[in-house]
Amino acid sequence: MMLPLIIAIVYRERCGLWFLIIGLLSLLAGFLITRKRPENMVFSMREGCIVTALSWLLISLVGCLPFFFSGQIPNFPNALFETVSGFTTTGASILENVEALAKCMLFWRSFTHWIGGMGVLVFLMAVIRMTGGSNMNLMRAESTGPSVGKMVPKAMRSARILYFTYIGLTVIMIVFLLAGHMTFYEAINTACSTAGTGGFAVKNSSMADYSAYIQWVVTVFMVAFGVNFNMFYLLLLRRWRQARHMEEVWVYIGIIIVAVAAVMINLYDVALTFGDNLRTVSFQVATIISTTGFTTVDFDKWPELSRLILVLLMFIGSCAGSTGGGMKVSRVIIMFKSMIREFGSYLFPKRVKAIKVGGKAVEPEVVRGVYVFLAAYICIFVVSMICLSFEGHDMVTNFSAVAASINNTGPGLGMVGPSENYVFFAGFNKFVLMFDMIAGRLELFPLLMLIYPPTWKGFFKNTNRRIE
Amino acid sequence: MMLPLIIAIVYRERCGLWFLIIGLLSLLAGFLITRKRPENMVFSMREGCIVTALSWLLISLVGCLPFFFSGQIPNFPNALFETVSGFTTTGASILENVEALAKCMLFWRSFTHWIGGMGVLVFLMAVIRMTGGSNMNLMRAESTGPSVGKMVPKAMRSARILYFTYIGLTVIMIVFLLAGHMTFYEAINTACSTAGTGGFAVKNSSMADYSAYIQWVVTVFMVAFGVNFNMFYLLLLRRWRQARHMEEVWVYIGIIIVAVAAVMINLYDVALTFGDNLRTVSFQVATIISTTGFTTVDFDKWPELSRLILVLLMFIGSCAGSTGGGMKVSRVIIMFKSMIREFGSYLFPKRVKAIKVGGKAVEPEVVRGVYVFLAAYICIFVVSMICLSFEGHDMVTNFSAVAASINNTGPGLGMVGPSENYVFFAGFNKFVLMFDMIAGRLELFPLLMLIYPPTWKGFFKNTNRRIE
Q: Going by DSSP bridges, is the β-strand pair A356-357/A360-361 parallel, antiparallel, or unpaired?
């Protein structure tokens, strides 16, 4: 919280004091908690899940305090919603007038994206330096997608490489934005929001008022932050052959190209030059598939086919191992391939082949995991839809609000479209959507664990006794 | 086609002649085709699928000819749509004024439901008497749901029992309807439509103008025809213990009770007595979950929560082994249980239990089959939605049109709501919806086989040579 404090000092904003107070208090609390060293440093899967889920809840609770106490977002559920939306890199906002906020608050808002983007725990892990085995379970709970790939044997080193790639890309993006004559403050904000694939902007018009150059830069970086970070690692090390085998990334890029082409054809009659059309469509497609949520036009007013394509992209989402959300391209690939394989096995029962992604066979447990993910996803989706329907908004609004939350996208269609916001939802449903955001961000399971009764069975009894 | 001919003679309708002509021609064609006995009487899975899918296409093509030639439905795609909708027991209609049709045509329309309901091939199997092994593959392709259960070892006997239960229930229903002072003609029509869980009615107002007694009778029988037919078999043989273990049926009834209660509470402010409210809600819930499609009110005007519940029921559908459509209750149970099991295995990796449904362990292949079904279902759904979006209708209309077709329900929401019809769709999209109906009816795979290229690889070459 020291960074927004600096911004506050630079812009002489008094509300920045709250960052100092809350920052010092949480530093104190953290110091007190970590004083007592645990006897057993090894995490079980269960503890890993619980710690992950609880720390997201905790960081959101602490993170929303500056908004609330400073009176910039006087309603507590709203302040919490904005912060959860920030840390989960969703970008769904309850603010009707973003520009009314103090600059330090806006920066904190974008910065939550940046922190959330990398995953709070990968972040903490690199800083706090815990010992060996415990990281693996946390990583499994935190890392996006079915498997991050064992690119570096040690989790610590892996975390640091991800971390440096992330910082590096953010800095490069800031440089590119500055080259487009963006102010330094706006460049940092935009880069933080893009890096976390979040989507909080500092202007009410999101990215619409910026130059074509800035929009292209943001488009390219949105796509880049949706790419599996292993890819950058492989490219940096010039391992071309392995990079060529990153099937997920190529499918991801393929989907983007097809979607851009389809939407452009669908929007053909709109009076725009080819270049403008390409830029606008690429921007919206990139913002949705990377689940960022910046916008330059109100795509809710697009024809039906284009809207549907955007909704589908929302569900597909970005690559596993990126900062983006959604179901992840790799899951879609595995589902599709296992379906085709099943066809083959009906026809020729003796010739059953394993599913291959990127040249490597996918283990049956991974395939099962993908399907169970799908089932859990549908369950959460349906329950959330039922909760939202109590309010009586139309089906498209409810559907896209849940989709935009659980996929960490941000803007949806209808009443939660790009030019609207989420403030009209009742308090209870804001909590439902917050649950969806965190569930989506943590790949569903850690948060579901929290509400699954057997998780807690005998948990408090033998925490200290059990060695697994 | 002799039955509608009789109706035509009774009501002295000249257009009934077409049933005679087309009936005789198809009899002749069928006689010619079966003259040449195949050398190899054993079906492979591949041939089973192809035969099943092709016979549905063929029977629909022949079945629509009376509508078309008599000029009662002068547009060929419309006539075909109506017939496919009939044989697949969907009940989606393109007719704006049902009552304008001749009585024999209306009967043929309801009767296609009755034929389709039991499955054209189970029907044919009981009549044509083919030899042993070949039936099993056809049954696998045709029977609804993940597994019919080996209740009777021989497929022939099994088919006959299903067949007699079906006829018996239809006759009982006719008796009950006649007791409510329905005309004999209307009673037969209504019973045929209900038995097939189809939903074609002889009145424009569907079931709204009938007495409360008739509506209750239809409600009860709609629910009954959505029950796994094994249940009736077990009840007839007084095997109470086994009947108690039909978990699927109890879940099905539980879902109905919960849905009725929820919708009734949601509709509370509507000025109706408790009894009227209960009847109306029960009727709509029963019509949707059994995927019949009769209606007594325009549920598209209901509040959002109730509409959503109905859409969810549409997807769940009826029990496996019934005449209803949808994803089937047993699939939903298996998905849900496998998800819970997966949670357990994350927490306690050593204690992995098999999934049990109705006290019996479910084989992993069945679970995998359910998930592959889900994936294929989503694929077809998405592709259909994309096709429909080209027309630019709103998302709820497209979504519910596809849902109502693939689940064989009939009425949807928005422009395909209970008081509307499907006539406005372009010809191409009518074929898309027909594809969905047949795909849904045949549990997706046989029809997908037809469009899966490897199915045809070398098919014509070694049909006569291969013995599997």
A: antiparallel
Beta bridge partners of A357: A360
CB contact under 8 A, B371 and A371: yes
Long-range contacts of B377-384 (CB under 8 A, 24+ apart): B377/B327, B377/B406, B377/B444, B379/A336, B379/A339, B380/B406, B380/B436, B380/B439, B380/B444, B380/B448, B381/B406, B382/A312, B384/B432, B384/B433, B384/B435, B384/B436
Q: How far is CA B182 from CA A172, B189, B233, B284, in A?
A: 78, 11, 29, 21
Cα–Cα distance for residue pair A331/A354, rounded to 1 Å: 16
Q: Residue A360 pairs with which residues in a beta bridge? A: A357
Cα three-residue angle B46-B48-B53, rounded to 5 degrees: 100
Task: Scan for tokens 């036009």, then name that residue.
Answer: A297
Partners of B357 in beta bridges = B360
Q: Residue A137's pLDDT band (boundaries 50, 70, 90)?
A: very low
- Distance separating alpha carbons of residues A27 and B9, to the nearest angstrom: 91
Q: What CA–CA distance (Å, rounded) separates A52 from A27? A: 19
CB within 8 Å: A398 and B45: no
The region, left, alpha or beta by phi > 0 then psi within -120 to 50, assigned to residue A193 is alpha
Q: How many CB atoms lie within 10 A of CB A261?
A: 13
SS3 A307: helix
Q: In terms of CA atoms, which chain B residue is nearest residue A386?
A: B305
Indicate if the pLDDT at residue A423 is higher than 60: yes
The residue to which tokens 């790009």 are assigned: A418
Chain A contact set for B368 (CB, 8 A) = 342, 368, 371
**DSSP annotation of B209:** T
B/e letters for B199-212, b = 16+ CB within 10 Å, e = fewer, are: bbbbeeebbbebee
**A116-134 residue pLDDT tens:** 887 654 644 443 333 333 3
Greatest extent of chain B over all pairs of C-alpha atoms, in Å? 74
Residue B345 tokens, joined: 């295995």
Helix, strand or coil for residue B200? coil
| Nearest residue on chain A to B373, alpha-carbon basis | A339
Question: Helix or strand or coil: residue A269?
Answer: coil
Whole-number Å distance between alpha carbons of A202 and A200: 7
Predicted confidence at residue A459, as pLDDT, reads 53
ipTM of the complex: 0.84
Residue B268 buriedness (CB in 10 A; 0-12 / 13-18 / 19+): exposed
Smallest Cβ distance to B395: which of A307, A338, A342?
A307
Looking at chain B, the number of H-run helices and the number of E-run strands are 21, 2
**A302 to chain B: nearest residue by CA?**
B392
Spatial distance between the Cα atoms of A77 and A430, rounded to a whole number of angstroms = 7
Residues in B touching A369 (Cβ below 8 Å)? 342
pTM of the entire predicted model: 0.85
The two beta strands, B360-361 and A360-361, are unpaired
What distance in Å separates the CA atoms of residue A232 and residue A97, rounded to the nearest whole number?
37
Of B336, B382, B396, the CB nearest to A395: B396
Bridge partners for A280 per DSSP: none
Q: What is the DSSP letter of A44?
A: P
Residue with tokens 């009736």: B232
Residues composing chain B? 468
Strand partners, B356: B361
Rg (CA), chain B: 22
The Cα–Cα gap between B155 and A379 comes to 37
The rounded distance, in Å, linking the Cα atoms of A328 and A314 is 10
Nearest-Cα distance to chain A for B372, in Å, is: 5
